[in-house]
Amino acid sequence: MAFLLDLPSAARADLAARWGVEPSTGALYEAMTAPRSLDDDERVVLARLAREAMNLEDLLASLPLSRERLVARLDALGALGLVLRAPLGDAPPRPARAPFGAEKLYVPADVPVG
Fold first, then answer.
1. pTM, entire model
2. What is the pLDDT of residues 44-100, one digit of tens each?
């Protein structure tokens, strides 16, 4: 997952703490790609963004979730590095965290959705 390779040390340590693993690329990759327990809303959001990158407004129009619930789920999934903001130019991808604007959000291909 390219996101992990470009992640600064402080952000890597924070992400590792959220997953409860050591801050190595291998440990984080394993944690992020292993099957996990997600609630139904989180599964729906991941599945939709895995099919197509979209911004918050388009995602809101395509899912049966309120804005408040969707933003909360996106922020939680972003905190775990499972939903990312599409990179702009040469910048690396970043975790999708609130507030959300017009940029596209996506799920890395390595993240299991089903």
1. 0.88
2. 999 999 999 999 999 999 999 999 999 999 999 999 999 999 988 888 889 999 999
Contact 74, 56 (CB under 8 A): yes
Tokens of 108: 């890395």
Residue with tokens 């997952």: 1
Q: What is the largest CA-CA distance in the chain?
A: 38
CB 111 within 8 A of CB 46: yes
- What distance in Å separates the CA atoms of residue 95 and residue 108, rounded to the nearest whole number? 11
Cα 74 from Cα 1, distance rounded (Å):
19
Q: SS3 helix, strand, coil % of the chain, rounded to 5?
A: 50, 5, 45
Position 89: which residue type?
A: G
